[in-house]
Amino acid sequence: MARTQRLEVRLALPLALVAAVTAVGTVGYWLLWRSYGATWLDALYMTFITITTIGYSEPYPLDERARIFTMVVGTTGIASLFYVFGVFMDYLVEMGASGERRKRQMERKIAALSEHVILTGLGRVGHQAAEELSQANHPFVVIERNPERVLWAADQGYVVLEGDATEDETLKKAGIERAKGLIAATGDDANNLFIVLSARALNPELYIVARAEDADVIPKMLKAGANRVIDPYAIGGRRLASLVLHPAVVDFLETTLRRGGAPISIEDILVTRDSPLVGKSIAELNLNRRYGIVVLAIIRGDETIVSPAAECVFKPGDQVIVMATVEQLERFVREMELQESANRKERLEREAKEA
């Protein structure tokens, strides 16, 4: 949908016509009444009362030429003023209609989403989070109550919902029951804490990441249900120090974690009960030769297995940290999802027969 043209752009032509009629009328009356000693103010006054249809008495007598000129000025002036009024009213109607249309479109898009991320707040931190989610091509919904930021997000092509994220109804409209994760990125710690509480109550399985500017609030947010709490200032400070101490390492990690155009990427893969990885070792799957994938670590409960041996067997619930090119990872994930879906269907059929 094309963006609504700005009001000042639409009014440029009609206002220019009004200005032109005013200028021509002023010059014309001054020339017609020059013999009477008329001033520029007299001519402007006559033009004004003519095009506005006020109709007070003329400062000086009107001969036949002046009357004809007055009719021309009045007709064109009134038409140009109506043009201005019409453009303005058309803009107001269109803005109202486009706002409702955009709202309905957003609601339909949100209703079609699942396994998406909900981002609350479009400040500096939220802006960066939205950009990263967009580059990763992961579906997400932005909740923002500032109308200007809502319009900006819509112009960027984001799915955006105008409202207060601290309200349960707003979170439900954003599809929190079907969401994969939530990012509480408003600039107010109290609001973020309330959002975390509401989100956890509405979806116990939701993965919640919250922003906290006050270190004392972090334990409270974790108790409220946040899986991770981030202090952007602390992260920024550590990154600045790391760039000085280990610039190559930081550049490498930043490249692998940024999906937009990165040659390689680091991803985490959850091993479910129906995953084709279950019960098989790294050597048996031959991930490096078949897909070009390097297994960096396996997170198993509270245990982290770094650089796992080739004999390491995958178990349900494992979080596997892998590294490869974006294309290799996409191919691997696509094949694993197809096999996992087939395994799940087979398991359900088997359980139905046993029942």
Overall description:
By secondary structure, the chain is α/β, with parallel strands linked by helices. It contains 14 helices and 10 strands. The chain has helices at residues 7-10, 12-32, 40-51, 64-111, 124-135, 147-155, 168-173, 189-202, 218-224, 232-245, 247-257, 282-285, 287-291, 326-354; strands spanning 117-120, 140-144, 159-162, 181-184, 207-211, 228-230, 264-270, 294-300, 303-306, 319-325. A 6-stranded parallel beta sheet has the order 3-2-1-4-5-6, sandwiched between helices. A hairpin with a 2-residue loop joins strand 8 (294-300) and strand 9 (303-306). The longest helix is centred in the first third of the chain and has 48 residues, at 64-111. It is elongated. The model has no long low-confidence stretch (mean pLDDT 87).
List keywords for this structure.
single chain; 355 residues; Helix Hairpins; Rossmann fold; Alpha-Beta Plaits; 3 domains; 6-stranded parallel β-sheet; 4-stranded antiparallel β-sheet; 14 helices; 55% helix
